[in-house]
Amino acid sequence: MDGSCTDDQSTTTETTSTVAAPVTTPPLIGSGGSVVLDLEGGLEAESRKLPSSRFKGVVPQPNGRWGAQIYEKHQRVWLGTFNEEHEAAKAYDTAVQRFRGRDAVTNFKPLPADTDEAGLEASFLNSHSKAEIVDMLRKHTYNDELEQSKRSCSLHKTPFTDGFRSGHQLVNAREQLFEKTVTPSDVGKLNRLVIPKQHAEKHFPLQNGSTSKGVLLHFEDIGMKVWRFRYSYWNSSQSYVLTKGWSRFVKEKNLKAGDIVSFQRSTGPDKQLYIDWKVKNGSGGRQEKSEIGTSFHGYRVGLLFSCDELIWGYD
DNA sequence: ATTTGTGTTGAG
DNA sequence: TCAACACAAATG
C-alpha cells in the first residue's frame, strides 16, 4: 500500500533555494509515460524502482533510507545515510556550502538568513577542513559541533564583560558534551540510560578491557551532589549505557520521558564531569515538588562556558 | 543478514 | 556534475 515512498509531492516550500531550483521535480511523471509495460508481475511496484529524491544531492537507499552525496573534481564524496530524506538534504546543504562557498545552491538554506547565525556557521564551516565537515555529517554530529562552537565563543562586541574577571570567582568552565531526551525506557524499570552511540564513543570512550565490565563515572549535578554511574557497553543491544546508580538519579530528579539530560565536562585539566537536566520543552511547567528543592534550575550552564580565545584563569 | 557506500554508466 | 542502478565491501 502506502509502502512506497512518502510522496507528499512537494509541499511547495521545499524549493526555497536561493536562485535556481525553480522547478525541482517534474510535477508528475509523464502520465502517458511511454512505459509500455507497467503491469508486469505487479507484486510490489516498489521493489523494483527506488523512490528518487526531490532533493539535490540525495539518493535513495535500498532499505528505505536516504544517502547524501556531493561531487567534486569528478568524484563523489559520500556524506552518509539518513533516516529522513530532509536530513540527507540538509547534510548536502552543509557540505555544498563548505565545498562551494557561501552562495551555492542549496535545498533549504536560504531561509531567513539569521544574519548572525549565518555568520557563525560560516566561520565554523571555514574553520574546519572539508574532510572534517564530511566526517561530522557522516557521523551525524555536525549540529552538535556547531552548537558547541556557538557556545564557546560568546565573544560579542562587549569589550569587557565586567563581573567576569573577578579573578577568584572564576568557577569551573564547562563545555557541553551532549544532551539526550530521555525515552520511556530510560526512566522506566530497566534502570539504565542508553547513551547515543556517537556521543558515547566520542566523549566516553571505553578501553578495550573495560568494554565488558564497564567503568565508574562520576558526575556532579547543579547542587554539587556527586553521582556515580556504572558505564558500560551492552553487547546484547549493542549500546552504551549508564546502569548502576542511574535509577536513583531518575528518582531524585523525578525524570519523566521527554525530559532532557545534559552532560558537560570541565574544560580544565581535571576533566570533571557534570550532569544536569531540564523538563521537556513546552511541558507546561510540570513541576513536581521534588523535596530537594531543586524545583527549577534554569539550565544555565551555558553561561559558564569558556572560549579558547578568552584566557582568564592564568594567575 | 543487513546496510553502507563504491563502481559504473548515461544523461544534462 | 549528477543521479540511477547494481552489487561488493563493511558492519552487526
TrEMBL record:
GO BP annotations listed: ethylene-activated signaling pathway
A cellular component term, taken from the record's GO annotations: nucleus
Protein name (Swiss-Prot/TrEMBL): AP2/ERF domain-containing protein
Composition bias, Low complexity: 1-23
Pfam families, A to Z: AP2 (PF00847), B3 (PF02362)
Sections of the chain in a coiled coil: none
Region: Disordered, residue numbers: 1-26
Signal peptide span: none
Primary location recorded for the protein, binned into one broad class: nucleus
Taxonomic superkingdom: Eukaryota
Species, as recorded: Cynara cardunculus var. scolymus (Globe artichoke)
Annotated keywords: DNA-binding, Ethylene signaling pathway, Nucleus, Transcription, Transcription regulation
Record domain TF-B3: where: 178-281
Gene Ontology molecular function, alphabetical: DNA binding; DNA-binding transcription factor activity
Location relative to the cell: Nucleus
Residue stretches making up the AP2/ERF domain: 54-109
PANTHER family listed in its UniProt record: AP2_ERF AND B3 DOMAIN-CONTAINING TRANSCRIPTION REPRESSOR RAV2, B3 DOMAIN-CONTAINING TRANSCRIPTION FACTOR ABI3
Family that this chain belongs to: Belongs to the AP2/ERF transcription factor family. RAV subfamily.
